[in-house]
Structure formats: structure tokens, C-alpha cells
Specification:
Number of domains: 1
CATH superfamily: MetI-like
Pfam family, one: BPD_transp_1
CATH topology: MetI-like fold
Helix content: over 70%
Radius of gyration: 24 Å
Membrane topology: Multi-pass membrane protein
Keywords: Cell membrane, Membrane, Transmembrane, Transmembrane helix, Transport
CATH architecture: Orthogonal Bundle
Number of helices: 12
Oligomer: single chain
Structural class: mainly alpha
Number of strands: 0
InterPro entries: BP-dep_ABC_trans_perm, MetI-like, MetI-like_sf
Family: Belongs to the binding-protein-dependent transport system permease family.
Strand content: under 5%
Length: 293
């Protein structure tokens, strides 16, 4: 009797989980599919049923988005900023997380506390101070060399992105490095490997699942970021989210919806491609196997 009740409870629990997951999947897939279909509709088709399928493939929407709305330029800027920000972030965060998690030295606890404190800083609240700081530095540079280059600069925006993402990235990587057994480091030390060789050849490959998660999370963060890009790039070199908002405002006022949805697809497509590429890594276990004797 007790076993039957337990089996009934387990069946109800599994049913609830399946229903919740299916509902969540449908709520995500349907809007994304609708945007993709809307991107290939002609403008007259939007005046009928919003759920009607397109009569054909109207790729002119993408051509207009790239040519008239300069989405190609915005796409290039986003790729440059995101790739550079990820590179800077990983170059700094990986060694920092490894050292903070695997070595004991004076000031280690203080540095870890500073990293954890950075998790509670909302980037939106410090956007204006960062802008004013860069503006003052630009004014100082103009007085010295008659040229300021800190605003409307893709490299500076990438550096700001990387700096604001450092606390979370270091914290996540440190937490993973702490779970790795020390046997591998001891074996590498016996074989004569130094600290750098041990980190790059042994520890980083073992931490690859966590590194992939960090890359995917920060890619989405940098790719979709709007407030910082709008504030620090007021005169040019704007990224896709800023360009998409400009496109939406222009096409909505012109009652031309096709290019607007085409712009949305241009923004979404790279993230979907990246997810398809790394999904196998994301599904890997986050635990490290035992050391073989």
C-alpha cells in the first residue's frame, strides 16, 4: 500500500514537471518562431491575422534592415565589442580565479571579499559615473593632444564590459576551481611542471565546462547590453541593441514592420547559433571524476 502511494506521488510529480517544462518551452518557442516568420512577411500581411503564415519569403526586409537602417554596421560593432570584451575578461579572470582559489597568501581573504562585494553592484547605477569619468579624461586629453578618444570607442566599451563582469566571472570560476582535486597539481609538480604549465595544461582543460558557461553567459550579457552602449557611444560605433531601438522607432513611425522584425532576427540569430555550438558542453556534468590510480 505504501509503495503504491509512493509510486502515485512520483507519477504526479513527474507529470507536474513535464507539464511545467512543456509550458515553458512553448512560451519561448512560439514567440521566437513568430518573430522569424514575421521577418519574412510583406507589410500588407501584418494587417490580417497576426498568426497567419507568410505567403512567401520576403527577404527584402533583411536587405532594407542592412542597407537603410545600417544594421550591418551595428552588427560589426557588436561582434567587435563582444569578442574583445570576452578576450579581456578571460585573460584576467582565469588566472585571477585560479590563484584566489588554489593558493593561500596574505590578502587572499580580502581579495575574495572584494570580488564578492562586486557581485552586489548594479551596472546600471554606475553607468553615469563611468561616463562622467571618461568625459573628464577626454577633456583632459583634448587640452593636451587636441583629441579625445575614450568616448565612442569600441575598445573602451569592451574594457568597461569586461571590468563590470569580472566579479561574477571570478566568483563562478573560483567556485569551480575549488572543487577540483589537488592530486593533479601534485602530480604535475612531481613531473617538474611550473605554476603556469600546470594552470594552462591541466587545470584550465579540467575547468572547461565552467569556462563555457562563463563565455555563454557573458556573451549574452555583452551582446544584449543597451544602457552602457547608449551612454558611452553617443556619437557613433553603436551596437546592435541601440541600432535595433532606432530601427524599431523609425519603422514603427513609418508603419513598416517587416524590417523591424528582420532587425530582431539579426540580434537573436548569433545567440541561437552560439547556443547550438556549445549545448553539448552545457549538458556535461559539472563534477570532476576521481583520480585514477
Amino acid at each position: 500500500m505504501k509503495d503504491s502511494k509512493e509510486r502515485s506521488t512520483d507519477a504526479l510529480y513527474k507529470l507536474f514537471i513535464y507539464v511545467a517544462l512543456i509550458t515553458l518551452a512553448v512560451s519561448i518557442v512560439i514567440p521566437v518562431a513568430w518573430v522569424f516568420l514575421a521577418a519574412i512577411k510583406e507589410n500588407v500581411e501584418f494587417y490580417g491575422s497576426p498568426w497567419s503564415l507568410p505567403h512567401g519569403f520576403h527577404f527584402q526586409n533583411f536587405i532594407e534592415a542592412f542597407q537603410e537602417a545600417r544594421m550591418g554596421e551595428y552588427l560589426f560593432n557588436s561582434i567587435m565589442v563582444t569578442v574583445l570584451a570576452l578576450f579581456i575578461l578571460l585573460v584576467i579572470a582565469l588566472p585571477a580565479a585560479y590563484v584566489l582559489s588554489r593558493f593561500s597568501f596574505r590578502g587572499n581573504k580580502l581579495l575574495n571579499m572584494i570580488v564578492k562585494a562586486g557581485l552586489f553592484i548594479n551596472v546600471s547605477y554606475i553607468t553615469v559615473p563611468i561616463f562622467l569619468m571618461l568625459l573628464d579624461l577626454d577633456m583632459g586629453l583634448k587640452s593636451l593632444i587636441d583629441n579625445g578618444f575614450l568616448l565612442n570607442n569600441r575598445a573602451v566599451l569592451a574594457l568597461v564590459y569586461a571590468a563590470t563582469a569580472l566579479p561574477f566571472t571570478i566568483y563562478l570560476l573560483s567556485s569551480y576551481f575549488q572543487t577540483l582535486p589537488s592530486d593533479f597539481e601534485e602530480a604535475a609538480s612531481i613531473d617538474g611542471a611550473g605554476y603556469y604549465r600546470t594552470m594552462f595544461s591541466i587545470m584550465l582543460p579540467m575547468a572547461m565546462p565552467s569556462i563555457v558557461i562563463v563565455i555563454l553567459f557573458n556573451f549574452l550579457l555583452f551582446w544584449n547590453e543597451y544602457i552602457m552602449a547608449l551612454t558611452l557611444m553617443p556619437g557613433g560605433n553603436q551596437t546592435l541593441p541601440v541600432g535595433l531601438l532606432n530601427l524599431m522607432a523609425a519603422e514603427r513611425s513609418a508603419v513598416n514592420y517587416g524590417p523591424m522584425y528582420a532587425g530582431m532576427v539579426i540580434v537573436m540569430l548569433p545567440t541561437l547559433i552560439l547556443y547550438i555550438i556549445v549545448q553539448k558542453r552545457l549538458t556535461q556534468g559539472m563534477t570532476v571524476g576521481g583520480v585514477k590510480g
